[in-house]
From TrEMBL:
Pfam families to which the protein is assigned, alphabetical: TPR_2
SUPFAM superfamilies: TPR-like (SSF48452)
Transmembrane segments: 50-70
InterPro entries the record matches: TPR-like_helical_dom_sf, TPR_2, TPR_rpt
Organism: Candidatus Acidiferrum panamense
TPR repeat feature ranges: 296-329
Designated name of the protein: Tetratricopeptide repeat protein
Keywords of the record: Membrane, Repeat, TPR repeat, Transmembrane, Transmembrane helix
Amino acid sequence: YYLKLGKADALVIELPKGGYVPRFREPAEEQPGTVPTTGAKVSRVQRSPWLKSGIAGLVIALAGGTIWWVQHRRAPIAIGVLPFENTNHDPANDYFADGLTDELIRNLSIIDGLAVRSRTSSFDMKGKQRNIREAGHQLQADYILEGAVLRAGQRLRIDVQLVRVHDDFPLWSGKFDRELTDIFAIQDEISVGIVNNLRLKLGGGRRRYETSVEAYDLYLRARAQADQRNRVPAIQAAGIYHQVIAKDPSFAPAYAGLASAYAASSAQGFLDDHADELTGMRAAAEKAIQLDPLLAEAHDALGMAYARDGQWAQSEKSFRRAIELDPNNSQTYDDFSTWILWPLGRIDEALHQMRLALKADPLSTFIQRWLAGTLMSAGKYD
């Protein structure tokens, strides 16, 4: 351009390769040895006021575009995982489909660049007619992962599909017909498929566990126990976690689940003696972290254990570590708010954590109730 049509331009605008800030210089003179005077430079620019305005506009546009690109590049991609359908329609196998859904939610939650909607909101869609756009709107998600599970003896068939919400476009799908022993490999492959198609990096992620089919089946049963915030279901879940640990003493998530179950059961029944539960909660959380230092739910459980002992600084450190490892788990934000911030009168901080919990879990009535209570405590009645 500057060799032909732009030959007479007063300034040359250059955009360095790989950069976003323009450089301005005067064009080189055709005849060597002649240098324009300062006065000549000024007069040439002053004769073109439109050029000044154009340059200023270009700089503003480039700066604005750069800011937009940086902000949107860093914004995590919102994704919801709908409860997988149990295609053999045997209610006795619902726990397996639900447990697998829950595991995928947790596996995806620790992938950098993803904002995964929490379990409660996802399971609010269970049993409802599937409409991707409506589900995406309710979950405030850009993508939806849906699937179906068929378990027959020791065989497992899983079909999954990643759908873009705004146009119902199936971005990726996978079909897995394997032995039940391949369940962990299947979960890994699903995570990789999503990461690759959303142009993300898998990173370290959650540890790949190796355990027996029997132990993992029991673990999914424990995870599927309904309403584990209440004492009776929490005690039942704790009993199943003990069975998992008996079959595989090195399975860290079972210890974390056991600690969380003890935390829930010991927080209720105020006339009961909870000494054994409190001791077991602390021991289980510490064992989980010993086996897997990067297990977010283990740090969450240890935070609750410290809080019960009044060790507030250690408790806060554990909760913040859990959030750092898994920033998409609404339960951790709620625990942090309920077990430390609220009791210590740090209401504004508690409110902030509950709002983060609601963002991760927009359909959870439990989170909504606690957020309402925190708002009232903060004097925000409107």
